[in-house]
Design a protein that fits this description.
- By secondary structure, the chain is α/β, with parallel strands linked by helices.
- The protein has one domain: 3-Layer(aba) Sandwich (Rossmann fold).
- Helices cover 27% and strands 23% of the residues.
- The strands form three sheets. It has a seven-stranded mixed beta sheet with strand order 4-3-2-5-10-15-14, sandwiched between helices. Strands 1, 6, 7, 8 and 9 form a five-stranded antiparallel beta sheet that branches.
- Helix 3 crosses helix 4.
- It is globular.
- The two termini are 31 Å apart.
Amino acid sequence: MTDETGKSRGVPGTPRGAKDGRCDAGPLRWRTAAERALYGPDGFYLRPEGPAGHFRTSVHASPLFAAAVARLLALTAERLDTDEVALVDVGAGRGELLSGILAAVPDGLAVRPYAVERAPRPAGLDPRIEWCTEPPAGVSGLLFANEWLDNVPVDIAETGPDGVVRYVLVRPDGSEEPGEPVGGPDAEWLARWWPPAGPGTRAEIGRPRDEAWAAAVATLERGLAVAVDYAHVRDARPPFGTLTGFRAGREVPPVPDGGCDLTAHVALDACALPGAELLAQREALHRLGVSGERPPLSLATTDPAAYVRALAAAGEAAELTARGGLGDFRWLMQPVGLPGQGAFPA
């Protein structure tokens, strides 16, 4: 993973944190340990510096990303045949994406912006933005979750030498040991979405993410819900999982002590509800007019300043759509009561 986010999340369906941000009574299942380390009162994502203090994401890479989401919002409004829509940013960080979208919204479109975030409202934020800990219910418009689901904590399962799939337990120092066998709904989820592949292999049980996404989508009366994340699908699951840590922009071992981000790629195909479309970020952004094509050299002669601006924009677009980088993100697009065919606006 080269870029990922450190947003603190309002996450439906995840266990509440402990009295502090650390795991004091290990070993614990990874889901509980990560929840405490990330989202406890002193958790990693509740620090004053916010996500931008640690990570550079698509939002921070270029204003072209926010402008593309603004175009998607306008297209959604057209499909809803309205000039007033809600814009819900789930896992809003410090409101950077919302602020960028509002700056790019076309004239004539009235937007009711909501930031869904567990951290306190930052000072100086656009007063139009409503700050909340859960998505508002019964709204129509665009719900956008950029790199939210990868930080919804999940349990880790590992197949032992005896073929038994067990939960992995972890201590505050990151040391692990096998726990009880996986059973019930978690075992059913693994059988359907991430079947065990032999001794020593691991899986990240994405059921809490499925539930969190379904709960978020259910808050829309009509509109489009979009989840953007590093992802994998059933036919190409990583055999040893993807759990890792990040601190100050560097990848580090995943240690649930509150000192680093803890993230794992998302099984977005498992999250998808009927009617959803799953596509790469490069394709989604291309459909929204983001192109890394360089401007013609002739422009450098006729309008040098415009050429420099266009060249810079092309470089930013290339980063957002690059293979092996941000372009490999997946967009899960879920229509809710939208007229017409398909999840993506025509």
